Amino acid sequence: MAKKVQSVTHQPLQQASNKINSEQLMNDLHYQQSRQIIQELLKKGLITPDEFNQIDTLNKQSFSPLLGPGNIDTSRF
User: Looking at the record's lineage, which domain of life comes first (predicted)?
Assistant: First the structure.
């Protein structure tokens, strides 16, 4: 018995490009660095979890990271 697959989006699929340009790479790096900073502020109690989420949302809008949080080790930069 075959199962019926239901569409979960109305947007057409787009093939992802494997090439990342330097601007995208820098945006990811800057996002990761900013996230590490606000994680430290949260850990030290200098900002609340709600403030952390608000700042992180703004950073995602500013930097438009391709990778998710925590995928890049920025400690060497």
Answer: Bacteria
pLDDT tens-digit series, residues 10-54: 666 666 666 778 888 899 999 999 999 999 999 999 999 999 999
CB 71 within 8 A of CB 35: no
Residues 6 or more apart whose CB falls under 8 angstroms from that of 30 comprise: 63
* Dist CA 17 CA 34 (whole Å): 26
Residue 9 DSSP SS3:
coil
pLDDT of residue 77: 43
Indicate the pTM of the whole model: 0.61
In angstroms, what is the C-alpha Rg of the chain? 17
Q: What share of the chain is helix, strand, coil (3-state, %, to 5)?
A: 50, 0, 50
What spatial distance separates the first Cα and last Cα of the chain, rounded to whole Å? 55
